Amino acid sequence: MPEPLFVLCPPRSYSSIVCGIIGQHPDCYGLPELNLFLGDTLGEAWQKYPLFKLFLGRDGLLRTLAQLHEGAQTADTVARAQEWVTQHSDWPVRKVFDHIQDLVGDRILVEKSPMYAREQEYIERMLHVFPKASILHLIRHPRGMGQSYVKLRSEYGVLNRAVENANTGARDPEKIWMATHELIVAVTDDLPIGQCMRIKGEALLSDLESYLPQICEWLEIRTDKEAINSMMHPEDSPYASEGPPGAPRGNDPNFLTHPAIDSARLAKLSEPTLDGELDWRPGELFTPETRKLAKQLGYQ
Asked: Cβ distance 108 to 231 under 8 Å?
């Protein structure tokens, strides 16, 4: 079976649309957020993250199991998926992934759970379980990521309350951006050459025609016109809309509402500047450390 592809990035970094695009390649299978590497076993991962109950962090796994076990995502199939999780809570997370892989077949599993890169323990567990997995380090300008993060919090009260109850570092998007990318860079720099691809989301999404074949070549999968065209339709994924009662999310809420590629809008996508005050901290600027890392990653 092929090694999976994990997209690593902070939240609000285009990961839902990028995972959806790659996941629609005929040789791939795009998954919603599974959040499995938060523990060694399914039961540990299921209980580890306190925001699960507040912002539906379990929905992605339930939707995946419902879809793959029964071919449909309904309130009943999700309830049976929940029963399956309870019955298999002692399974190591690798065994859960292998189970999903068996149901999918020989396609590359594509997953992005932003939580993996929030704690060193999680990302190290992921690479311990899948030491040869392909890693796509997805980057978004810290200003764009921060603005999107604050906007989402304002639109979804449940998420905002969860963040307000978290520690101070979880509230400031600059600190999240900095800590997450520092961790990803530190971990991926030690990987064998070719195992990790680092790419700016703004560049990728504004020029899919150029970048998608490069990603396919890196993954050693088809680059023909039919395959690339399939990638241009993330809305065809069974996970590209709101789920049923019991598992409505599992992905970025904006993506679930508008999963199709808006070519005209993406063509105009541009990178913000590192200069100027921050929307979420009026009168303040990016720290020198953030500016240095952002420039290292290709931003100005």
From this structure: no
Helix, strand, or coil (residue 224):
coil
pLDDT in tens, 246-267: 999 999 989 999 999 998 888 8
Provide the CA 3 distance to its chain's centre, in angstroms: 17
Q: Domain limits at 57?
A: 5-296
Domain count, the chain: 1
* Domain harbouring 26, CATH code: 3.40.50.300
The answer to whether 162 and 156 have CB atoms below 8 angstroms apart is no
C-alpha distances in Å from residue 288, one per residue of 17, 117, 284, 292: 30, 22, 12, 6
d(CA 86, CA 65): 13
Query: pLDDT tens-digit profile of 118-176?
Result: 899 999 999 999 999 999 999 999 999 999 999 887 766 545 444 444 444 457 999 99
